[in-house]
Structure formats: C-alpha cells, structure tokens
Amino acid sequence: MKLGKYSIGVGDRFSHQGVAQLRAIMKANETGLEISPVWNKSNREHIYVHSHPADVRKEADAAVAKLGYKGLYFVDADHINLSTVAPFVETADFFTLDVAAFIGKPSSEADVAAFVASCEKYMGELSIPGMKKPLHISKEMLEAIASKFLTATQQASEIYKYLVENKGVGNFITEVSMDEVETPQTPIDMLFILKMLADKGVPAQTIAPKFTGRFNKGVDYRGDLKQFAREFEEDVLVIDYAVKEFGLPEELKLSIHSGSDKFSIYPIMAEVIHKYDKGLHLKTAGTTWLEEVIGLAVAGGEGLELAKKIYANSFNRSEELCAPYADVIDIDNVQLPSVEEVNTWTSEKFANTLRHIPGHADYNSNFRQLIHVAYKVAAEMGETYTSLLEKYEDIVGNCVEENIYERHLKRLFNL
Ligand SMILES: [Zn+2]
After folding, report:
1. Which tens digit of pLDDT belongs to each residue from 282-330?
2. Are strands 135-137 and 124-126 parallel, antiparallel or unpaired?
3. What's the gap in Å between 226 CA and the centre of ligand 1?
4. The pTM of the whole model exceeds 0.90
5. What is the largest CA-CA distance in the chain?
6. How many Å lie between the centroid of ligand 1 and the Cα of residue 4?
7. Ligand 1 centroid – CA 257 distance (Å)
8. Which of 53, 282, 352, 412 is close enough to 259 for a disulfide, judged by CB 3.0 to 4.6 Å?
C-alpha cells in the first residue's frame, strides 16, 4: 500500500464534514493534481468526543461513495502508541507511530557503540546532493544522536511489528512522528533517525519531525521564515539521500503536523517541493471544527446563539481547556473579548473575528486559539451541537470547503 505523492490529513472532530472536505480536495484535483485525503483522528480526540475509530472509517467511506471519488484515500490512526493502537487496527490503514515520549530514554552502551560503528562511512565531511556545504559528522555527535533516538526508533519498530502481525505486511501506511517535543530535530538528526528506522526494518512513508518555530494550533507559523526555509529544504534533501542510501521507501516524505493555517510557510514549502519534485503530507484537524463554529455563527438564529454559548463556556473554562495544549497555543488573555461583549455581536462580527484572514480588522488570533482548544465544550453539548450541524449543513459545509480549498490548498499548491 502506497500513499500518493501529495496527501492532506483532514481531521474532523465530529465526523460531519467528510463530504465538504473531500469536495475541496476534488476541486484541487480537477487542476490535474492527485492529492489523497487522509482522515486522521487521535486517541485523545476520540476520548474527548466519545467517538470510536470505526466512525472515522464510516465517514471516509460514505464521503467517497457520495461524491464518487475514485482516487486513493486513507484513515489515519493518529499519534498512537503500543498501549492505544489496538482499537484502530481493524478500520485504519494509516498509522502514525508516536514515539516522542521515548526520545532521550537511555539505550545500552553496546547498542550506542554498535550504531556509531555502523556509521563509520558517514563520519567526517558528508556531502548530501543539493546541499551547498557538506555536513560535518563527528563520533561525539553520532553518540549523542544514538543516545537520544535509538530507544524511540526501537519503539517505532515494536509498534510496526505489532501492526504487521495484526494487519499483515504491506497492508498499511507507516508514519513516524516526533513532533510533540520541545527541542526540534535538525536535518542531521533526521538523517540518522532514518538510518535507525531503516536498520530496524520500519518502512516509513512519512516522517513528522519537530521543526523550529511555533506551530500553534489553528493560527499562522511563528518563527524565523529564513531558518524554516533552510531547515525544510535540508530535510527534503536528507530524506532523498536516506531513501537511496538506506533503502527506505522511495515515496518517503515529510509530514507537517499542526499543519493547518500556517499560511506564511506554505509558499516556502511549495517552492521546495516543486524545486526537487518531492511529495508532502500536511496534517490538519481543528481548523475544520473552527469552520463549524463559523458556519453556525453565519447561519444566525440558534446557530449564532450556540456559537456564543461555546465561546462563553470556553472563556469561563479556559484554564482547564488550555492546559493539555499549553505548548501549542499562545493566548494573550488581555486580548480576549468579554462574554458580554461577544453576546452583542452580529453573525458577521463573530465570523470575522474567528475566521483566519490575516490582516482583517476583526480577526483575533487569541479568540481563535481559545475556541480551537474548546471542542470538548461542543462534545459535551452532544446532540444539541450535532443537530445544528445537520440543520445548517449547507452553510457549515461551504465554510469547511472554502477554508480547505481557498486558504490551504490554493496556497500550498499554487492553484
Ligand atoms: Zn502531531
């Protein structure tokens, strides 16, 4: 099973927007591209929303059938590990092996020494085709990398073996993710992480590193664009080298997590993947939930009322809701409007404050990030929430489609 060159992860917290998401992708594919949709959902999201992995499969299959989509599509068990993977085995065919928690866990001295010895030929000056300057690889550097990543890659291999036993070899896509950590991985780290995965027989098709800069939820990238551009390009070149050198799957590509709304780096990524004719996986999730709230606000009446209620609850419970996401949000509480003020807003004012249009006079990234982490509030509303999604399906669906197509795919693929 192979993932196409371009793919986009379309997480959908409440499983109501599969058709709208697929419409956006099919629209982009009309230009001759072949972007595969991947419906991703993590264990944490399932717990908050009280959904089951099989629901994601149902949603994906139904959207594909309804629109007569003929291309490749996948269902991603997002950020799973050995203790959470089991319920996903039957219905997922894409597995994101999250080994971030094992980074830095000690390995035996013998294992570190064996890895360093196996890298003898890369020590000294290592030229990677496409890179202006050779990399300088020292023995100390290799020891540090091995000590930091051997256990994590071993863990990836154990989850992979479990999946082979339970799904059969070649019947699923393997992604390895290391993004949910504080320290970014450099292109040199990436090179040797890939060697470890190859050594351990993990045929990763996508890898999600932690990049420098902030990938906050639902808002634009914050960081040094030049540095990101250099790092992204070097990662692409390192992957190309690693595929040939270590025998990893030739379709191996970068996966960008928290990838929605990173408008300022889309042109950078577009240029690099175009320059080297490489693929990309962009993972999104909460941006679709935000469009649901925008759609309800636009619908007016009880839709707008519910959107305001979601904000009021988010505001009053912000500490609890923000805690699990502390590393991936930056909310300036002073910039949050009061509940009383929001309750006076029109549909237009609410939607414009929440919708991600950088430079729009009403746009408020603090308001947006708070609602982003507050999907638990809507989950607790249960049918009160989902029945309005169904009632205003057209308006909400148009918001979801427009967001993915106009603001994401168009920027990412120069459409
Ligand atoms: Zn991630």
Report:
1. 999 999 999 999 999 999 999 999 999 999 999 999 999 999 898 899 9
2. antiparallel
3. 23
4. yes
5. 68
6. 20
7. 5
8. 282
